[in-house]
Amino acid sequence: MEVKTFYEQLGMGYEDVSGRLGSDALIKKFVIRFLDDASFTRLRDGLQENDGEKAFRAAHTLKGICLNLSFDTLYKPCAEITEALRDGRITEGCNTLFLEVEKEYNRLTKAVRSILIGGETK
Amino acid sequence: MKYQILIVDDAELNREILKEMLLDEYDVLEADNGKMALEIIDKEWEHIHAILLDLVMPVMDGFEVLAGLQERKVVGKIPVLVISGDNTSRNEKKCFDYGVYDFIGRPFNSVLVKLRVKNMVNQYVYKNRLEEKVQEQTAVLRKAYETVKMQAEELEKRNQDIIEVLGAIVEYRDVESGEHIQRVKGYTKILAEAFRVQYPEYGLTENTIDTIVAASALHDLGKIAIPDRILLKPGRLDKDEFEYMKSHTIRGCEILESMKVEWNPAMKKISLEIIRHHHERYDGKGYPDGLKGDEIPISAQLVSVADVYDALINERCYKDAYSKEEAFHMIMNGECGAFSPKLLETFRSVKKQFEKLS
């Protein structure tokens, strides 16, 4: 039940991810593994280092993971920043978009920790 | 043995998801960028049964991997399934142009991906096995063909030897003709080669001409069965003697047929044509069958011109020698035999070559 709760609390499509990946146990495993994924950090670093290519690839990867795991709320800003970075140039708007990515990323990871990992130790 | 799948994706999490669903049926190799993927393919390509390929990756992207696969000629041997979030038709088309098996957009349904992987692996394993089989069979066939060809060449060579021996026997028996057989061969060759060029509709080939020339040595094979009193009689033969003499055409065929020798079919056929029909006439008044026009095999027509020409310009026990000029006109005017107008045209065109040889 906790996986369903997690998706519903964040307003993301549980039915969709469940239909595509199958069991809750698998979804949970991958969602927790998401905490170790470095794409978000690389995106932030790429923007800070003014490395447009690196930022684009990281955003693109993050977007792909969001699609696979039905992280709808994080997917939206990821898709936007990916398109903004597609030609490899960092523009003014990118930083604003990143704030949106960061906000959703933090909300998501916090929920993973509290609902899924917290739920495990109960 | 489990089939092996190579997963190429820069995000470990994506690889994990794919791996999770494939691991119970396949062995999995992983690469987190295109360069690493090509290195693995170079080392392991014979043991990789499918590639799952992401497009956007650091170091070397998916399109570069596809180009690398094309260069290595493994496209068509290992199926590639592209999995990408950039599923625009432009990207998809580009991938298909590189020869990928299929394109799946993100987010993917893991059950469907698994089914597609299963389909493409089975299809390619089957296809590759078939191709291997075809190659093996082709090699076997080629070898068999070589053997048969060698045997045919061997047979032809032995046939040539036998014809040579028979020709020598005829020559020995027919004391007057001496070098007659060698010259008939020479005239036949000159005539046949010119005729082939002037009248391609007769379908003569280099090969057929060689056979006709070799077999022309046998045209009088039947004369070895004609008694001396007729064969070597000075002056004209009476009616009965002449009838007997005519039988050399049929007797020659009987001798050849009675020999327990394995013949190349074309060689035997042409030899029999020449032996039996070299005394036929184009107007149907020849022997033994009275064949008319092109009912007479072209092999026999060619040899009969050569035979008549050589008989005319040399002395025989029953006649003196004519000059080459006289012989030429006698043949052209139909005073000695009757020949196809086409063949006479050819004969006219090689007059000089005949005279040089005689």
From TrEMBL, chain A:
One of its GO terms (biological process) is phosphorelay signal transduction system. It comes from the Bacteria. InterPro entries: HPT_dom_sf, Sig_transdc_His_kin_Hpt_dom. Residues 40-108 form the HPt domain. This is Hpt domain-containing protein.
Automatic annotation (TrEMBL), chain B:
GO terms for biological process: phosphorelay signal transduction system. It comes from the Bacteria. It holds the Pfam family HD_5. The modification 4-aspartylphosphate is found at residue 54. SMART domains: HDc, REC. InterPro entries: CheY-like_superfamily, Cyclic_di-GMP/3'3'-cGAMP_PDE, HD/PDEase_dom, HD_GYP_dom, Sig_transdc_resp-reg_receiver. Residues 155-358 form the HD-GYP domain. Residues 4-121 form the Response regulatory domain. Residues 127-165 form a coiled coil. The keyword rRNA-binding does not apply. Keywords: Coiled coil, Phosphoprotein. May play the central regulatory role in sporulation. It may be an element of the effector pathway responsible for the activation of sporulation genes in response to nutritional stress. Spo0A may act in concert with spo0H (a sigma factor) to control the expression of some genes that are critical to the sporulation process. This is Stage 0 sporulation protein A homolog. It comes from Roseburia zhanii.
